[in-house]
Predict the structure.
Amino acid sequence: MRGVGVGREAAIAATHEGFGGRPVAALVYGRRQHLINLFLWPAHRGPADGADETTRQGYHLLHWTTPEYTYWAVSDLGLAELREFARLLRQADSTAR
């Protein structure tokens, strides 16, 4: 998984699973003593939308879409750091086009 990094975080595991009848990629990033689980799948065609966020049982969940993908980032990392991770992902996604 070398080269799959976001800022100072690096992917430490990846898989390709099905969920709800669609393919879902799952990446696991490490940040200090925390894991960040990133799930993404092809989006239904449409405009990108802003990030939604919630906290459940001590885990922060961030959700956003781009014209190509739907993203969910889940972690017990501090919310500000998870937002920064998501910002870096969105920035990398926009420069890859």
